[in-house]
Amino acid sequence: MTELGAVLSQIKRCDTAKPYVFVSYSSRDCEIVWPDVLRLQQDGWNVWLDEKNLDKTKASWNEDALRAINSRHCKLLLFYVSGHSLRSEACLKEWEETSSQRTQRNHRGEVPTLVVEAEPIDNIIHYCDKVQMQMEEEIEDDARFDKEVDVLYDFREKLFQNSNDRVRIRAKNTPGGKIDYYEDIQRNFPNTLTPRTAGETEESPAQTAESPQPAPAAASAEAEQKQPEAAPAPAAETDLHTVKTLGPTDIKYNICTFGSGFHIGAGAAVTLVMEGKRYERKMHSVTKGRVDGLKQLYADHGLKLGDVLDARYSVAEHTIYLTKKETAQ
Description:
Elements: H1 3-10, E1 20-24, H2 30-42, E2 47-48, H3 50-53, H4 61-70, E3 74-81, H5 89-97, H6 101-107, E4 113-117, H7 124-138, H8 142-159, E5 168-169, H9 181-187, H10 204-210, H11 214-226, E6 240-245, H12 248-253, E7 256-257, E8 269-274, E9 277-282, E10 290-291, H13 295-301, E11 308-314, E12 319-325
Helix pairs in contact: 1-2, 4-5, 7-8
């Protein structure tokens, strides 16, 4: 068995009855993608891969893949961008399915897309030009050339909107990377996705030592009951309010996902205030109600798994006021 075959043999079928990540990629990039899928599964994520979830002997296998995207259990399209996938009609159809009528009905909106570089790209627009030049040299058949150019331009204009601004996960081993590649992918997963049960992940020892898993839920229930008497006092009118119990993903990646109901705006600048200290941050560009880069805030206030935060947002001040509440005993 080849090394790549050994990787594939370890990848599990996706449990399509639970929230999952759909992986869209060119088969010519399998040497990059399959090890990533295995790693994500080992980290506890439920991942859909064609080689494990599709019966390609069936005439309907393309449609079956699209159905896996519009399923209400599909929470993210993980798209590996490369010179191969940008020419793939199948990849284009998969991305387009994230906003199809059926998908939007099932999800009450689009399925978000997270783009990962299968190879170093730098500027996506210049990269698309380079891909087209390669196509001009390689493809002799005019009909095939026209078809692949149309796919390339649909990606360029619709997904990337003729701009290099869309957030992408840089290719593995990119020089000068400031964050671990797999951590970078996972911290961009929406809050509708969670790793498998604590007993199947590396996070379970920390959960056991600091707080049994039921405790955060109990803390949250108590917080909801005591909510009126624990309200902080922001200087301006409060426009949004929620109570948040810090979970394993929040602590591991130094983020806080307040939930889609706490949607301030993708990428919006926001100030967090806790016990008089101010932290200037931005809302996540994909996941609604999520703030990244909270390592300093967590350290300053000794926040840990199971802690409960009362969060109140003032639109006038663009500020989230945080108060730590007592956790359940």
